[in-house]
Write a structure and sequence with these properties.
740 residues; mainly beta; 7-stranded antiparallel β-sheet; 6-stranded antiparallel β-sheet; 5 helices
Length: 740
């Protein structure tokens, strides 16, 4: 390695270019105080920063095409917002750590030499903006460019050997609904490869050596007379189709020019027989490798979206953060909530706290992490809260948060049937002999018959018996030698409120006595956000999506809970599964035994006519999001159907209303839309016809992407808090112009 002298800057940026075909360290700054390193590990970038106080590993696992032997650019920035890593001009990942050269007292940076080439390394005193990082990224170099409507024989032979790579064309048609062939390749007088467009579809097709036409298509209206960039990327066993820098489809199966026998012509703007596109192709190029996401966006001059890491592994010493909830208030305050998974990344059973970060300027800057709810225990034995769902009451100015609670060692897979409370709203307790008790509001404990006992319980669940420690009611059975009393081993819905925009929060109130039935094992929120109804006879009602299990604990039904008195009391409505006819059977949510008919986490929209639309996660073989409508504010529901426009891979959905035109609202729906095989391909979709269709879509993150929560910001942008399942939660501001 060579060495570049540097100043121990507290913040700043490092930029450079590299090319490699193997794993290697690219740039390394280290000292007795720690390390800051950009490396290629298992064919993708990994950024490690470590001091005695904090370690962060940014695993850019979705950037899987960088060991291709071609040049790539990088930029690493560290400042008040944390660490950001840009690949080929666009943000590839970010984190909350602020470890830079000054943290290490580093005076030099080592730079790789040899087989792995690293060049143009520079250290900047400033933290580069998204736009500045993009300016340091050169456009990818093609193998060939089209100077006319066909390639020369020499260039055709070079392209004809490629079994993976990227083809790029920029085109427009002469009028709406016209189309034709943009790129074509042939052998003799037989067309063997083509990229074509019509009024409804973009298609890439290859006639392979086996004599079989293989085709990959995506739907969309790009034959509209406007200029569009089309990219076909062949690699990693798939064809990716991009339009204007955004991936429209990733389809398994791979074929490229090298899969054609005897290729001798490659044309643009027409097929090999001379049938021309009803339009024109202004430029085209072929690249010898699958371009990265950043390189493709660079071709189309896509504007970066500002993204900020709010919660990620290592922050506050926690191993993981998951399950976002995001709420913007009229004042400009934004509240971002998360599960803080302290020692292991799993769902409950686990030690999970509810934490928030607040922004007082519409999401531009954020306060430190605030712990709102914390229960005792550690790891898989710990008590937990999980899956926050928030809603703002505009009539009272109160923020409401509903969240699930499990005692230690208990989670959705193993909780028992039952309410866990008496009909007056008091927690039920039991001792080692199975004797039942009731916890009163003042912390005293009585028997089920109302007789006084010597037990008392503090607000955090600590038990005192005859003046001596008696364990904690929320702990796992058997972990505390002083154990005396425990809560029922089931799930609980907990309600907390804030009257000062999230600065302080009320003590938790358990709601099971009014919402849960003895035949239910699990009753919990659908995380994200609820609604306050603004129209109709139920105007002002607070509505929170939930789901629950019945006699058979592995099958679930969606529903809502609602409050007509500003959260003082809550009721549960019927499920769309109650009375539903499915495959000739009439269903009941209590006795549901059909996984295909199960409905899980959901999201809600209020339509202009006052109806509620619920969009539901499910296991239906259609692979589409379930939906139903309510005419009475969520108390009952109509038939369940599955929307053709909304793909479903068994992951949480989220939807919000944003301002429309002429009083007609626009709805935005987001979910992880494709198994890759991990949950990913986060897509946002627009509906301008009250949810009847969702024709406009944008791929926000084509790689790892799971849960999300959206809100409408004072800046007239969508605020999106989204998660990479293991790394953390990230906040992005998205203007409606992003949807073009």
């Amino acid at each position: 390695m060579s060495t570049l002298p540097c100043q121990p800057l507290p913040s700043g940026s490092i930029t450079g270019r590299f090319r490699t075909t193997a794993d290697a360290d690219l740039v390394v700054a280290q000292s007795d105080h720690g390390i800051l390193k950009v490396a290629i590990i298992e064919d993708h970038p990994v950024i490690t920063s470590r001091t005695p106080e904090r370690e962060q590993v940014l695993d850019v696992e979705d950037a899987t095409t960088v060991t291709d032997g071609t040049w790539h650019s990088f930029a690493l920035t560290v400042g008040e917002e944390g660490t950001k890593f840009y690949l080929d001009g666009y943000l590839a990942f970010c984190g909350t750590a602020t470890i830079f050269l000054g943290s290490l007292e580093a005076t030099s940076v080592d730079i790789a030499e040899g087989v792995t080439e690293v060049t143009d390394v520079a250290i900047h005193e400033s933290v580069l903006t998204d736009e500045e990082a993009l300016a340091y990224a050169p456009v990818a170099t093609p193998l060939v460019q089209f100077a006319g409507n066909h390639l020369s024989d020499f260039d055709t032979r070079r392209v004809g050997t490629l079994i993976s790579g990227t083809a790029y064309t920029r085109f427009r048609v002469r009028g709406i609904g016209q189309g034709g062939t943009m790129l074509s390749a042939g052998a003799g007088d037989v067309e063997r490869l083509k990229v074509s467009i019509d009024a409804t579809e973009l298609t890439y097709a290859v006639l392979t050596q086996e004599g079989e036409w293989r085709s990959w298509s995506c739907s969309g209206d790009w034959a509209d007379g406007e200029w569009h960039d089309v990219v076909v990327r062949a690699g990693e066993g798939a064809i990716d189709l991009y339009v204007d820098g955004f991936r429209e489809a990733r389809i398994p199966g791979q074929a490229f020019f090298g899969d054609i026998t005897g290729i001798d012509s490659i044309m643009i703007g027409q097929d090999i027989h001379g049938s021309r596109l009803f339009g024109e192709v202004s430029k085209a190029a072929i690249y010898p490798t699958p371009l990265t996401e950043g390189q493709i966006k660079r071709l189309s001059h896509v504007s970066p979206l500002p993204t900020h890491a709010l919660f990620d592994r290592g922050l506050e010493g926690s191993i993981s953060y998951r399950i976002p909830s995001l709420l913007a208030l009229p004042s400009g305050v934004v509240i971002a909530g998360a599960d803080q998974r302290t020692t292991i990344a799993n769902d409950s059973p686990n030690d999970i706290n509810f934490v928030i970060r607040r922004s007082e300027d519409g999401g531009l800057t954020w306060d430190d992490v605030q712990t709102v709810l914390k229960y005792p225990g550690e790891g898989a034995d710990g008590a937990s809260v999980i899956d926050s769902c928030t809603v703002y009451d505009s009539e009272t100015g109160v923020v409401h948060c509903l969240i699930d609670h499990f005692p230690g060692g208990i989670g959705q897979p193993n909780n028992e049937h039952g309410v866990g409370m008496d009909d007056k709203g008091h927690l039920l307790l039991f001792d080692a002999e199975g004797k039942d008790y009731v916890l009163l509001d003042d912390g005293s404990v009585v028997t089920r018959d109302g007789e006084a006992t010597d037990y008392t319980v503090s607000d955090d669940g600590t038990v005192t018996h005859h003046g001596k420690p008696g364990g904690n009611i929320y702990l796992k059975d058997g972990v505390d030698p002083d154990q005396t009393l425990l809560t029922a081993r089931t799930s609980y819905l907990v309600h907390i409120t804030s009257e000062d925009e999230g600065k302080t929060w009320s003590q938790p109130k358990f709601l099971n006595s009014s919402l849960k039935e003895d035949w239910m094992a699990f009753l919990g929120t659908s995380p994200g956000t609820g609604l306050q109804l603004r129209r109709g006879k139920h105007k002002g009602r607070l509505v929170i999506p939930v789901y629950y299990s019945g006699d058979i604990t592995k099958h679930f039904s969606a529903a809502v809970i609602f409050s007509d008195d500003h959260g003082a009391t809550w009721k549960r409505g019927a499920s769309p599964n109650d009375g539903r006819v499915y495959n000739g059977d009439t269903l009941d949510s209590r006795t549901l035994d059909n996984d295909e008919a199960s409905t899980h986490e959901s999201t809600l929209l209020e339509l202009p006519d006052g109806r509620l639309l619920v969009l539901m996660r499910n296991q239906h073989p259609s692979g589409r999001v379930g939906q139903a409508f309510s005419d009475d504010g969520g108390e009952t529901w109509g038939d369940v159907s599955y929307h053709d426009d909304l793909t479903e891979i068994f992951s949480q959905p989220n939807a919000i209303e944003v301002p429309g035109v002429d009083g007609e609202p626009v709805y935005v729906f987001a979910n992880a839309s494709q198994l890759m095989p991990y949950r990913g391909n986060g897509v946002l979709r627009l509906s301008k016809d009250r949810g009847a269709t969702w024709p406009v879509s944008r791929t926000f993150n084509p790689g790892h992407y799971v849960y999300q929560s959206m809100t409408w910001l004072p800046s007239n942008e969508i605020g999106l808090l989204w998660e990479n399942e293991w790394q953390g939660l990230y906040f992005t501001r998205i203007p409606l112009s992003w949807f073009d």
